[in-house]
Amino acid sequence: MKKVVLAFSGGLDTSFCCIYLSQDLGLEVHSVVVNTGGFSAEELKNIEARAYALGVKSHTAIDETEDYYRETIKYLIFGNVLKNATYPLSVSAERVCQATAIANYAKKIGAECVAHGSTGAGNDQVRFDMIFQTLIPGVEIITPIRDLQLSREAEIEYLHKHGVEYSAEKAKYSINKGLWGTSVGGAETLTSNQYLPESAWPTPVTSSEPQQITIDFENGEPVALNGTKMSPVQVIQELQAIAQPYGIGRDIHVGDTIIGIKGRVGFEAAASVILIKAHHTLEKHTLTKWQLSWKDQIAAFYGNYMHEGQMHDPVMRDIEAFLQSSQSTVSGRVIVELHPYRFIVIGIESAHDLMSNKFGSYGEMNKGYTGEDVKGFSKIFGNQTIIWHKVNQK
Predict the structure, then answer these.
(1) Same-domain status, 231 and 344
(2) CATH number at residue 286
(3) Are residue 124 and residue 215 in the same domain, yes or no?
(4) Same domain assignment for residues 40 and 168
(5) Residue 40: which CATH number?
(6) Are residues 343 and 372 in the same domain?
(7) How many separate domains does the chain show?
(8) Distance of CA 41 to CAs 57, 61, 63, 94, Å?
(9) Residue 357 covered by a domain
(10) pTM for this one?
(11) How far apart are CA 14 and CA 269, in angstroms?
(12) For residues 13 and 159, is the Cβ–Cβ distance under 8 A?
């Protein structure tokens, strides 16, 4: 009997896949859940119990949270990456990490097949397929939901026929939670003119009193929250716990999918949007004009290429080296104030602050040069434009 490794979350699509792969295709199913910071210990136990109830031969949970930060999220922070100036790439980055972990596990147990529950309409099918083809060439890729073109209603009916109860109400919204944010998909996100209702968001808004917090960065990485030193992963988790109840970081992203159609997805990602904004503010104080300019251009490409699942292209390692190098002076404290549905970056404190008053104050008096120096500079700086206008006067 052939072994198949199934990327498993315990949701509707992968529950269908469990039964279909074993009972319809006669495969030995080994389910794997890759935790990228979105599951509690209790949730992982429930997922394991569900997998065995669905008839898998073995089930494994792989914790990739630290690797996810170190190999992916860190560079999204360095690059201040928000796709289309909105989306922190939470699902995109997660899928790359998960697909890589699943490919490595399939290799480890000598599986002949690997399967995922992606549909034929979204980005995940490309990300999973491409990474599997790159890392485990020759291993057969099986995608039941895509191949059978199943609706969610058809999947629920199939499960019911095989004695598995699945609530249609439970399947109303597709929730994907990870360290870098939570995505929400439903009927509203399939339209162009509807917003998700309050009940669809996983975290209810319960905080209303303004609160000031501080985030410390060292070489671009978040290392302390409110003065307490902790790992970057802990900073993200603690910040999420504090800020998400304010309803901060909720939005709907509209973007171009890899396969060329437009798509919408809701997300809540308070920690992500606060950290990116705080980090970017610190960078504007501590980096030069051209460091910021080139970072913006390179980071935009990095985010788009990651979004398309291309994390194993060696150009991504080259860009990461540039981003890492750019962070050598990005250290200091950022003060942020939280309010319901919004936040304000109050300012920064850093030994590397290029706004130092030793060299003068913007809009007032400068101490590094004289008025005559500026006159000469202005004449030379605009020389070619002056010549053009003289040559081309009518």
Answers:
(1) yes
(2) 3.90.1260.10
(3) no
(4) yes
(5) 3.40.50.620
(6) no
(7) 3
(8) 21, 10, 11, 19
(9) no
(10) 0.91
(11) 25
(12) no
Asked whether residue 355 is assigned to any structural domain, the reply reads no
Q: What percent of the chain has pLDDT above 90?
A: 85
Q: Give the range of the structural domain holding residue 376, as residue numbers without chain letter.
A: 363-391
Q: Say if 91 falls within a structural domain.
A: yes
- The reply to whether 356 falls in a domain is no
Co-location of 181 and 145 in the same domain: no
Tokens of 339: 């309010």
pLDDT tens, position by position, 307-355: 999 999 999 999 999 999 999 999 999 999 999 999 999 999 999 999 9
pLDDT tens-digit map of 40-61: 999 999 999 999 999 999 999 9
Identify whether residues 202 and 281 lie together within a single domain. yes
- Edge-to-edge strand order for the sheet containing 262-268? 174-178, 181-185, 262-268, 250-256
